[in-house]
Amino acid sequence: MNSTIKETTKIEEGKEIILTKLFADPAIVQQHRSQLMQIFKDAKATEIEQKIQNIVVKENVFNAVMEDLSKHFEFTFDEAELKLAKDKIKNNFISRGAKDIPEDALDNIAKKSIMKSLIFSFIEKQKGLSITDEEVKESLENYYQQTNQPIRQILNDENEFAKVKASMREEKVMKAVIEMYKIKIELPKKATDSKESK
After folding, report:
1. CA 136, CA 158: separation in Å to the nearest integer?
2. What is the arithmetic mean of pLDDT over 123-135?
3. Which of 15, 93, 130, 174 has the fewest CB atoms lying closer than 10 Å?
4. How are the residues of the chain apportioned to helix, strand and coil, as percentages rounded to the nearest 5?
5. Cα 158 to Cα 8, 107, 108, 133, 164, distances in angstroms
6. How far apart are CA 115 and CA 1, in angstroms?
């Protein structure tokens, strides 16, 4: 990437982050639900909803961690990369039926996407993280055992295999990033109606 990252303050590993709210885009939640139902065809509705809840929690934790991490770096954005990211994001929104996406919103999302890539590369290098082809093959085999979805095409296609490897790399770095913090989830208890006894 031509965009750059510079560490300005030392990352506080072990810092505590407390989440008191969880945010979820209904459209994204439905997208997760559709994908999970397609993959886990025999799963019960309650199992699917639990998987969705786990995804929502993970996404909220990750966003909180990235917000804190970004404070430790200084970024410069390459205009060509920024434009490419904005175009990709805009096309994604349009494909989901969105219209008239504000330019400042596109700019903000695109910058966050580039920042994420730069931070991931920084952490990956700092912690010496990597994914081997054997790890990819083992993961694909486990995926096949759990879902019965075909994997032969991925194993025989270099580009598809590379996509899976990149996805696993990102997942591994994401896990390492989250583990740098102590996360506490303290959601307010649901209010219950109470009646005075007479």
Report:
1. 12
2. 94
3. 130
4. 65, 10, 30
5. 39, 33, 34, 11, 10
6. 11
